[in-house]
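LAB NOTEBOOK - FOLDING QUEUE
OPERATOR: T.R.
BATCH SIZE: 2
PURPOSE: Compare the predicted structure-token outputs for two unrelated chains run back to back under identical settings.
PRIORITY: normal
REVIEWER: second-year student, initials M.K.

ITEM 1
FIELD SEQUENCE / FIELD STRUCTURE:
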Amino acid sequence: MPGGRLNHQDRLDIAAGLEAGLGYAEIARQLRRPTSTISREVARNGGASGYRADHAHYATASRARRRRPASPATGARVLDPKREYVERFAAMMVDGGLPRMASRVLALLYTSDSRTLTAADLVQILRVSPASISKAIGYLERVGMVHREPDPVRRLQHYVIADDVWLKAWEVSARTNYSWAELAAEGIELVGRDTPAGERLMHMADFFHRLSEDMSGGGGFQDCLAVLAVLWQSDRRLDADELAGSLGWPVERVMDALDYAIKTSGQDGAEQAAGEDAVGEA
């Protein structure tokens, strides 16, 4: 029976087994591990309904680093609270549906004191290969969360986080839910609506369609998020004309977004978020 610690592939197999409805004993037999190893692993990392392989792997590695004793030759290891925060930040985004390495890059960019970071900076800080960074940056550029700015002096590419990054993250999550719904609908056609599998897939498709629609919320919702993103980044109150100028929109579109915020959040909450001047214009 193999010994040693669970690796990332083991955790992926555990997650797949739980998803398939297997018990701990059956998963343990397949991995040739003690049942107690599987039960402890799942209990420490969200339980059977909340277990996520990537998050469990990060969390276990983080716990191991915190427990590791200092080497007599080097003295006590100084923990870096910011680095641990970045990893927890990334793990939260992984749970939200973003790829693992893209989440780490995004978390680092967002928490960096510097406005931009180069690929070499990211490789050095995250301790990963240039290929991993290139793939992660490519994904973040495709979904609009990061863009490049050239450095004409040193001929380097600097990576900058998008101003509306959380709106983009929300849109990615909504698109992911829609993809799940479409995949379930495809399965229904394959197995038939009147079969047990078809019934399960119908429930899945309905759930993710509703979730995607709720997250997308139509144009008013998206415009509301964009307006709030500008207000959140500003160091002062903005009126409707200033918001329109920042967004490149007609004033009427800004007013509609503010009306939407008022109707969905309540007058007091919207005024606090948007500023008395802008809401007063509405």
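ITEM 2
FIELD SEQUENCE / FIELD STRUCTURE:
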Amino acid sequence: MEIDRRSLLRTALLSPIALAAGCAGPIGALSLEEGVYRLLSLSSQRAFARLTMPGGFYDDQLTRIVPPASGGDGVLSAVLRTNAVRRQLAMAMNEIAVEAADRAAPIVIDTIRRMSFADALAIARGGPTAATDLLEAQVGDRLIEAMFPEFSLGLSGDVVEILGAIAGAGGGPNYAGLARSASALASRSIFRAIGREEAGIRANPQATRDPAILALLAAGSG
């Protein structure tokens, strides 16, 4: 079931790109908007393909989630006090993030499909993550809300209960604050990953072989 779910996710991310790739035409305002759409779609597809692999967050310094220095109460502060426990907690949070990314991906996909790129040329002429920055602003806190249940459930599970015992903190803590913080950190990591892919595409657009992306970035450099 897990394999099927991941396969469906990657198919959903790839399909709009595959469909659009066959559409070459004259370059005008609509074509520039199509270029931004394909740029964001391809960047997101590549980012989620990495993030949803085992170790997709933790193994990458750009996206690795680091536990906050304090949990906000006595129990979590005790859990987070030592480096050894923080390291184990970080690994748990990053593993949960891989699963939580499955909840985030459809929101990103849907947002891209609904976005209007009225000033596509300004995006083309913007910085290396100009399109991603716009996407993040459009999504807002929706990724945090979508991923919160996954973190809330995961951080109240056996792994973190054991970490609490190791730290001598006692039982029964409320992990809602930590789950909310982890969701926010995961959301930021997702957009950092998308932004890195966008920057990579901008640096070598020819590798995409996508006429709309090539036209968009050529117009931006003109």
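REVIEWER COMMENT (ITEM 2): Confidence is low (pLDDT under 50) at residues 16-27.
FOLLOW-UP: none requested
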